[in-house]
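Figure 2 data, in text form.
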Amino acid sequence: MTGRRGWRFQDGVAVAGLVALAIFATQGVWSEIFRFALRNEEQSHIFLAIPAAVLLVWARRSRLRRMRPRPWLGGPMIVAGGWALATYGYAAAYDLFLHAGALLIVIGAGLSVIGFQGLKNFAPALAVLLFLLPIPGRVRLQISIPLQEATAASYKWFLDLFAVPVTQAGNLLTINGTDVAVAEACNGMRMVAALALVSYVFVFLVPMRWWVRLLILALSPALALVANILRLVPTVLMYGYSSLDAADVFHDWSGWLMLAVAWGMLVGVLSVLKWLELPIAPYAVSEE
């Protein structure tokens, strides 16, 4: 360990200063991103991205204490690439490129001081920042419309099982004479994005082998569908048999509650793998 030191005060100041400068330079893009999140619940996962990144950095804080930041030429190169991408996105009116470019500018600014070792040690925390990018409308429609219809059909089957009268037409359910569109009662896209983020954080917080991580990430869309159905059952019943105000309040808060339910499902998947006596524990040399 000779010649290696941890963080110095000036290192923290340099990182904070460069990141703040990068955010200031792209403030218009960030304002637009968070307006998307505020106005469209399908983009509400954006609010979870930064806390998720902080949590993943905290889980690896021992590496942070041992690491000595070193200037890295790759940082300015990432900034330049982000600037070029954002410029093209602005000129071509392609929001995804504009938003991704702004994110690369901020990440590159921080890595300019932290160095390649920071990228290597905290890659999962940096990658989760991709959830800051709003999902393009074309992608949302391709995922949400089939998911809404599948959720509505699953929900009708569930209520038929308990002899609750309900009819379905596409993603429209009618219960107790009240029409409830799945799109407005419990949007599937919101759960897919949020559950994907929760699954990502889970696999990098809990020690496990890489194949287990990939398996859980692959299962996240199915878990999102299950969570969406669990949310939809009481939500549609509220719309059918309760006041509209009470149903709206339940709808707004139940989505966040499903994040805790999803975490429990992920723990359950890991417990099943352990019960099957599959080798899920990390190797002697940690992959974290």
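Caption note: The two ends are 21 Å apart (CA to CA).
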